[in-house]
Design brief:
With about 350 residues, the chain is an alpha/beta fold. The chain contains twelve helices and 18 strands. The protein folds into two domains: about 180 residues, Medium-chain alcohol dehydrogenases, catalytic domain (Quinone Oxidoreductase, Chain A, domain 1, Alpha-Beta Complex); about 140 residues, Rossmann fold. It is about 25% helix and about 30% strand. Strands 3, 5, 6, 9, 10, 17 and 18 form a seven-stranded mixed sheet that branches. Strands 13-12-11-14-15-16 form a six-stranded parallel sheet, sandwiched between helices. Strands 2-1-4 form a three-stranded antiparallel sheet, with no helix packed on it. A hairpin with a 2-residue loop joins β1 and β2. The chain starts with a strand and ends with a strand. It binds zinc ion (2 copies). The site of one zinc ion has 6 residues, from α5.
Length: about 350
């Protein structure tokens, strides 16, 4: 489709402009999507403020950010057209992590670790724009009862599904989620739906903990704010009390905050599973007490991205295993993106997930 479109183009840190640029040209294995909703991710904030480099060849822009999106197919490349998998007008969501499906890593099924992958909004143009293109292999149809806005949450939710799969929840387990961001809150709901006996969510902001309480958590504890009515000064003691000293069966760390990296080892029990699923900094270290971890036969995992979990994520929304609407708190127009990033960063109006609606 030839023509121009509006897009927010990121040039360098603190320099992003509302511009008119060419509509992306669709290659033989690609489709063009008219963007209907695109979520704002913590990583978009990190890119805009220069806290992390893009994954372009030189780490710099210009690039259209935005990787959590849904929309309507407006054009098909040769390959998806000939396969008849999609048609113009289809309502879809897009896995921004586009694997090559041909390298040795992909052929072993480890697609999330593909070394030739491109990522919409991170290494190639994304969806803070009227249109975005993607490989047909990373397109998923939205179920009829899933809205575009809910569909835009399928990227963080697919991540959450992969983390929870790795947690291996068994019936009745005592489970703890550390970090009630949008993904952590989604994980708490999925854990409860997976048959956990008790779900505890630990955080430092009451408004987020209260969303957890309404969506899957049995107990919420604030470990950072001594004025909070959920404040617990000694969380390890609290978990010991709640479990009669047996401690937690499953602990999911849904934050990259290095200050809490040691906590899961204190609060987890025998044969427990500990999953780290927040993005840590380059130099961060997880302090593992080796002897105690060995004596209690604990398993520690570091899942990454969301391989093969998209159908489950969409199914979880469609069958209402998870209430995505409770996690979407703000909506902005495309041209308001900078304001939106500032508000989310400064936590104005208690944001969870904010969406851009082009
Ligand atoms: Zn994201
Ligand atoms: Zn590959």
């Amino acid at each position: 489709m030839k023509g121009k479109m509006k897009a927010m183009v990121f040039h360098e840190s603190l320099n992003m402009k509302y511009e008119e640029i060419d509509i992306p040209e669709v290659g033989p294995d690609e489709v063009l999507v008219k963007v209907r909703a695109c979520g704002i991710c913590g990583s978009d904030i990190a890119y805009y403020w220069g806290m992390s480099p893009l994954e372009t060849s030189d780490g710099k822009g210009p690039l259209v950010l935005g990787h959590e999106f849904s929309g309507e197919i407006v054009e098909l490349g040769e390959l998806p057209k000939s396969l008849g998998l999609f048609k113009v007008g289809d309502r879809v969501t897009v896995d921004p992590v586009q694997y090559c499906n041909a390298c040795e890593v992909c052929k072993k099924g480890q697609v999330n670790l593909c070394e030739n992958k491109s990522v919409s909004g991170v290494s190639v143009d994304g969806a803070f724009a009227e249109y975005a293109k993607a490989k047909y292999t990373s397109i998923f149809q939205l179920p009829d009862n899933v809205t575009y806005e809910q569909g835009a949450f399928s990227e963080p939710l697919a991540d959450a599904v992969y983390a929870v799969q790795n947690l291996e929840v068994t019936l009745g387990d005592f489970c703890v989620v550390i970090g009630p961001g949008p993904i952590g809150l989604a994980e708490a709901q999925l854990i409860k739906s997976s048959g956990a006996g008790t779900v505890v969510v630990i955080g430092t902001r009451d408004y987020r903990l209260e969303v957890a309480k309404e969506n899957g958590a049995d107990f919420i504890f604030n470990t950072g704010d001594s004025n909070s009515k959920y404040y617990v000064p000694d969380i390890t003691k609290k978990i010991a009390e709640l479990t009669d000293g047996k401690m937690a069966d499953r602990v999911l760390v849904a934050t990259g905050n290095p200050e809490v990296m040691g906590l899961p080892f204190e609060i987890s029990g025998r044969r427990s599973v500990i999953v780290f699923f927040g993005l840590p900094g380059e130099k961060d270290i997880v302090p593992v007490p080796a002897l105690q971890t060995t004596f209690w036969d604990k398993r520690i995992k570091f899942p990454w991205l969301a391989p093969f979990t998209w159908p489950r994520a969409l199914n979880a929304i469609s069958t209402k295993l998870i209430d995505v609407d409770a996690l979407v708190t703000h909506k902005f127009k495309l041209e308001e993106l900078i304001t939106a990033l500032e508000k989310v960063k400064n936590r104005e109006g208690n944001p969870l997930k904010a969406l851009v609606i082009p």
